[in-house]
Design a protein that fits this description.
The chain contains 17 helices and 20 strands. The protein has about 475 residues and is an alpha/beta fold.
């Protein structure tokens, strides 16, 4: 589940990096000097670090080391020409999303920048530390107090359990929050200061505990679906066969942090049978009278009053109208009233492989964020896909925006310590994603409510959620919600 990083160069810097990154990364350390790799073992490095003996400037060696599945590549060899060749292969041949290098000589920095590689000048890094020793008004993070503590900057993500909590509730002992950067402002923290999503915190404390504290502030454990509500609700507005939806709701309630299950009951449904099913599943379950078709309570209000974190719906049958993108009216009306995720259940659980669709815009970005959280709670493999229609149809600029959105989705995975595989599809987005979804257990997507559509401009998300061969987790959003992503 951890993203992979390749480090070229097993000198002192490479070995120390491998040890520090190991808790959150699948680390592969490479060097053509076997003696340097053996030193790593004598230094008590964790056994999970993969050691590769070979030339890091050889494409065959890199392929053998697993660079094709790497999210990041880092070169810390003592020879700029070797560093540059490794970075060229990683970024241009194997398309590693993030490539970083150290430059021994300042004159080589422009060559790394020309191929789009992040570069750090070793002389600059060392002189900044030495300068802090001479000019005592300047301090680096390793030169605070007695020199035994550390400072870490961490960004609080939306799913962090710290969001909304006051600092005094966290009872810090061997650490503290020294400053909070909130958008463009500096907030001086006090006990009653509340943590918000997006805050950048400066943590000060013992180096042995700070990584764990930083991880808690960043993401913690998966909280799905508690960020939307505490209960899983099951509804059947269209009167479809509900076997899949009830059992898949059981699976959600058992596996996630949900506090229980509720069923919105219509007169046609057999309450006794549903209660017996819940008892056999050993789940706390209650029913809510939804009324008959003409006297039903407004669904949106019921979802709010019953603290719904995820609404489970039976998948409508796929007929001619659904294939044309205009069927499933009951399901679509339900999505228009919901503000929380809705699961279109097709019984393809447990979720071991999850696919999330990516496109430009805040709605899709929130769906990616939700997919990352869901992948963590189910320990599932996550793939992000984007479909690019022909340039003649959407234009080259739109194609670049789609590609950028896919890169951002992969980058978000690194924030959550989740490896995100990516698939760039070409052709009709509906056909391409539907074909791809057949290989997965769950499809995650965003759906804009009440989106106008016609034959010339189909509603892609509507087609996907109606016709997908697997269960679909939909995050509905409206015009007024687009700016919140």
């Amino acid at each position: 589940m951890k993203p992979r990083i390749l480090i070229a160069g097993a000198g002192q810097t490479g070995r120390e990096l491998a040890i520090r990154l190991n808790p959150n990364w699948d680390v592969v350390l490479m060097d053509k000097d076997a003696a340097k790799l053996e030193i790593l073992q004598s230094e008590g490095a964790p056994s999970e670090i993969t050691r590769v003996h070979g030339d890091a400037t050889s494409a065959l060696v890199l392929k053998h080391a697993g660079i094709e599945s790497a999210y990041s590549a880092l070169s810390v060899m003592g020879w700029d020409e070797a560093n540059l060749e490794f970075c060229r292969l990683a970024s241009q041949v194997f398309r590693v999303p993030r490539v970083t290098a150290t430059a021994v000589l300042r004159s080589w920095i422009p060559r790394f920048e020309e191929i789009g590689v992040e570069v750090i000048s070793r002389p600059n890094a060392i002189t900044s530390v030495l300068q802090s020793r001479v000019e005592r008004g300047m301090r680096t993070t390793s030169d605070v107090g007695l020199g035994k503590g550390e400072i870490l900057e961490v960004k609080v993500l939306p799913h962090s359990p710290a969001v909304g909590k006051r600092l005094e509730e966290l009872h810090p002992q061997s650490w503290l929050v020294g400053a909070i950067y909130r958008k463009s402002e500096l907030v001086v923290p006090h006990g009653n200061t509340k943590i918000r999503a997006g805050d950048r915190l400066l943590l000060i404390g013992q180096p042995a505990i700070l990584p764990a504290i930083a991880d808690y502030f960043r993401t913690g454990t998966s909280e799905f679906p508690l960020q939307y509500g505490s209960r899983v609700l099951v509804a059947n507005p269209g009167g479809h066969q509900e076997g899949h939806s009830v059992h898949e709701a059981f699976y959600l309630a058992r596996t996630t942090k949900a506090l229980g299950l509720k069923i919105l009951l219509t007169p046609e449904q057999d309450a006794n049978t549903l209660h017996e099913l819940c008892e056999s599943a050993e789940l706390p379950c209650t029913t809510v009278d939804w009324g008959d078709e003409h006297k039903r309570e407004p669904l949106g209000r019921l979802l709010r009053e019953n603290d719904c974190g995820c609404l489970v719906l039976p998948a409508p049958p796929v007929g001619l109208w659904e294939r044309m993108g205009i069927g499933g009216q009951g399901t679509m009306e339900t999505l228009d009233q919901a503000r929380q995720p809705c699961l279109i259940a097709r019984g393809t659980y447990p979720y071991r492989r999850i696919l999330v669709t990516v496109s430009p815009g805040p709605g899709a970005a929130r769906a990616v964020e939700m997919a990352l959280d869901v992948a963590r709670v189910f320990s599932a493999k996550l793939t992000a896909c984007a479909a690019t229609p022909p340039a003649l149809v959407v234009g080259e600029e739109r194609g670049r925006e789609i590609q950028q959105a896919l890169r951002q989705a992969v980058g978000m995975g690194a924030l959550y310590s989740v490896q995100v595989d990516s698939e760039m599809l070409e052709g009709n987005p509906i056909h391409q994603v539907l074909e791809q979804a057949g290989k997965f257990d769950l499809l995650v997507l965003a759906h804009r409510k009440r989106r106008p559509f016609n034959a010339a401009r189909p509603d892609i998300s509507r087609h996907l959620l109606m016709r997908a061969p697997c269960s679909v987790l939909v995050l509905p959003f409206g015009e007024e919600e687009q700016g919140g992503g």
